[in-house]
């Protein structure tokens, strides 16, 4: 009996001991976990703050102190207003300082973007996330903060360099256009005049009855060559820059382009536009002309189309340009080709005029380019408005 009891007690004691050991182990584990957690927060490279409901900093890690150029001791117990610019007046709770989403599109509701204040008063951009936990019946906000000044600086530099590239490309386009205009004019005025006067001389020569007979076919051959030279010269000059463009006659310039395209590539091309509506200033006429020219070149090179339709309409102070073909259709990956600059150039020209452009595959087949250009100030004074 005693033995049994003793045995029982011994068994119970052993179980109690096991339980106690297990408990101790669990306690140690949780201690370890706590220590690990503390260590992580302590050594984190991101700044971490715990903030009480009254926007007083309860805890700051060394990274936070470093970020605000102060000490942990100075931060803890201090009000958040010393370190974070409140986006609203009378900010009271931590959530007033870190508004959901930070006003930035595409961010989670727990992400924010705010302005930090360093101990020396310098302001700097901060991004991070916030979480609220319930602790002893009180709400505590834990925020992770990241100093994004460096990134902002890089972004600004990138934006500036992008801007400069745009300006450079636009300046180069203008210079190129001016050179083309200049050469076209020289060809037309100088060389053109010379050839025309040569032709007149030849005509006079042909009228001369005293010419020796063998020179007649020679002179006729010369005249034929001269006519070819004049036609070539006109074609080259027009290719460089159609005269119509300089006279605000975009409609006639496009008609020329259309006719030449049909003749050269055997692809039907229809132009729906109103002549008076296309009397635009030089920059706009040139941009539209060059865009249509590039689009037609692309159609000839890539589309395998049999028909092209060009629509230019003035609606509500905007010029709507649509270029459609019935070819194989442009693919998304075509528009990403690094070495292709035609579409890039089109977009740049449209953006330079504050317009919008969309390039897409068309239904049921083919490619369409839709452009909307605001016309305020771009119509020529003698042109009808609207
Ligand atoms: N009308 C079109 N139909 C089908 N594919 C097109 C059309 N226009 C452009 N593309 C495709 O888009 C690509 C990019 O065009 P672009 O930037 O003008 O460069 P490039 O003409 O020098 O190749 C072309 O290589 C072609 O694959
Ligand atoms: Mg091209």
UniProtKB/TrEMBL annotation:
This is Histidine kinase. InterPro entries: HATPase_C_sf, HATPase_dom, His_kinase_dom, PAS, PAS-like_dom_sf, Sensor_HK_TwoCompSys, Sig_transdc_His_kin_sub3_dim/P. It holds the Pfam family HATPase_c. Residues 288-377 form the Histidine kinase domain. Keywords: Kinase, Transferase, Two-component regulatory system. GO terms for molecular function: kinase activity. It comes from the Bacteria. SMART domains: HATPase_c. PANTHER family: NITRATE/NITRITE SENSOR PROTEIN NARX-RELATED (PTHR24421), OXYGEN SENSOR HISTIDINE KINASE NREB (PTHR24421:SF59).
């Amino acid at each position: 009996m005693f033995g049994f009891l003793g045995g029982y007690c011994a068994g119970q004691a052993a179980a109690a001991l096991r339980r106690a050991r297990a408990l101790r182990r669990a306690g140690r584990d949780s201690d370890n976990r706590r220590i690990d957690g503390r260590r992580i927060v302590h050594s984190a490279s991101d700044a971490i703050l715990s903030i009480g409901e009254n926007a007083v900093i309860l805890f700051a890690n060394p990274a936070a102190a470093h970020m605000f150029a102060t000490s942990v001791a100075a931060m803890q117990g201090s009000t958040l207003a010393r370190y974070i610019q409140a986006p609203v007046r009378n900010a009271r709770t931590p959530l007033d300082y870190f508004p959901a989403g930070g006003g930035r599109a595409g961010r989670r509701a727990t992400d924010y973007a705010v302005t930090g204040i360093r101990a020396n008063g310098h302001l700097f951009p901060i991004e991070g996330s916030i979480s609220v936990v319930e602790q002893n019946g009180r709400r505590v906000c834990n925020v992770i903060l990241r100093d994004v000044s460096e990134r902002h600086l890089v972004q600004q530099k990138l934006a500036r360099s992008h801007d400069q590239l745009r300006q450079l490309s636009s300046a180069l386009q203008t210079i190129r256009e001016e050179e083309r205009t200049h050469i076209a004019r020289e060809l037309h005025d100088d060389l053109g005049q010379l050839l025309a006067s040569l032709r007149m001389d030849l005509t006079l020569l042909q009228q001369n009855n005293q010419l020796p007979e063998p020179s007649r076919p020679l002179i006729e051959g010369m005249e034929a060559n001269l006519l070819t030279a004049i036609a070539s010269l006109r074609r080259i000059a027009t290719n460089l820059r159609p005269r119509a463009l300089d006279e605000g006659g975009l409609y006639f310039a496009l008609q020329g382009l259309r006719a030449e395209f049909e003749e050269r590539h055997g692809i039907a091309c229809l132009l729906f536009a109103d002549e008076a509506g296309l009397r635009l200033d030089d920059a706009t006429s040139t941009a539209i002309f060059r865009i249509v020219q590039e689009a037609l070149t692309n159609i000839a090179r890539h589309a395998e189309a049999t028909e092209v339709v060009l629509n230019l309409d003035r609606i509500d102070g905007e010029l709507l340009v649509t270029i459609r073909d019935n070819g194989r259709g442009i693919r998304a990956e075509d528009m990403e080709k690094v070495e292709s600059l035609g579409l890039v150039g089109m977009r740049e020209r449209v953006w330079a005029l504050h317009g919008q452009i969309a390039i897409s595959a068309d239904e049921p087949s083919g490619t369409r380019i839709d452009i909307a250009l605001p016309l305020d100030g771009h119509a020529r004074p003698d042109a009808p408005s609207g």
